[in-house]
Each structure stands twice: as structure tokens, then as C-alpha cells.
Amino acid sequence: MAEIVRMPKLSDTMTEGVVAKWNKKVGDKVKSGDILAEIETDKATMEFESYLDGTLLHIGVQQGQTAPVDSLLAVLGKEGEDIMALLKERKRLRRRARQSQGAARRRQEAKPRCPAPAPAPAPAPVHHPHRTSVPSERSRESQPARKAPGRRERHRHRSCAWHRSRKAA
Question: How many domains does the chain have?
């Protein structure tokens, strides 16, 4: 049965490789350990050894072309073996993967990137013990701005029980 040879990840930072040179041609016999190609990474040019025995049936990436890691580099198998079904299956799987990636991207784009911040809650009105009701926002807005109380006005209630309880605590 034919086997797919994939673009290897030759370094930790490698995301794609360039086939600098093919050392075998389609139809050549390949043994495990033979050098199939020279691959340029982002840092160096390295020789790629075959890990399979067989005949080179198909070259997926031509000399000088760039391919992502784990993409189809070549196909090895028995001489005269039909690989069209394998290549069609590969194309069908690749097309399905692209469609699912596109659908996922469309779903991601449909979502708002950053939700609008929630409005800050209105501060709760402070209840003073001397008032009978809490003033509403409307009554505060309709009243003219008051001048800050002077020292006498500020301390006029000091004798009430609420202030005495505060003083004791």
C-alpha cells in the first residue's frame, strides 16, 4: 500500500520548508535511510532521509517550492501501484478541512470581538437619620447648587443620638 511522506518539522521554530533539491526522481527505488531531498528551514538546509522502502511514485512539492509542515511531500509504494485514489482522498480531506476552517472563521467574525462594557450602577443614595425620605435624582437636579456649608452649619446636629453613637464607636 502506498504511504504518504509528509514535510517534516526539522526544528522547533519551523512552520514551512523549501525543497532545495530532490535526490530521487519519480520511479526510483528508495530504501530506508536513503536521502530523498534537501530541505531548507528558517535556519539551515538539511538532508531528509526516507524512513520507508519502496518506489517514489509521486512528488507533491517541486524543487524550489515552499510547503507548510505536515503537508504532502511525496508518495512511496510498490512500483505500478495506483495512487490516484490516495491523492483524491487527500484532496477531499484537505477541502473539508478548509471548509471547516472557513466556517469557524465566519463564526468567529460574527461574534463581537469585545462586548460593550456594562453601564456602571447608580450609586445608592445615602440615608441620613434626620431625613424622613431619600431624595430622588430628579429632585437633586431641579434644585440649584448649594454653597458648601460653613463650620456652624456642618456641626449643628452634634447633640443628636446618631452623632453620639458615632462618637462612642
Answer: 1
CA distances to 19, 20, 31, 65, 78 from 47, rounded to whole Å, are: 10, 10, 15, 16, 24
> In CATH, what number is assigned to the domain containing residue 50?
2.40.50.100
Paired strand residues for 22: 37
Spatial contact of 41 and 69, defined as CB atoms under 8 Å apart: no
Look up residue 46 and give its three cell numbers. 538539511
Map grid coordinates 512500483 to a residue: 79
Q: Is residue 130 part of a domain?
A: no
Q: Which domain holds residue 70?
A: 3-80
User: Which of 37, 36, 39 lies closest to 14, judged by CA?
Assistant: 39
Q: Confirm whether 53 is domain-assigned.
A: yes
**Residue 37 domain-assigned?**
yes
pTM: 0.53
- Residue 64 in any domain: the answer is yes
* pLDDT tens, residue order, the chain (169 aa): 788 888 888 888 888 889 999 999 988 898 988 999 999 988 888 898 888 888 888 888 899 988 888 888 888 888 887 777 777 777 776 777 677 777 777 777 776 666 667 788 877 766 656 655 555 555 555 555 565 555 555 555 556 666 667 666 5
Nearest-CA neighbor of 134 among 142, 125, 143? 125
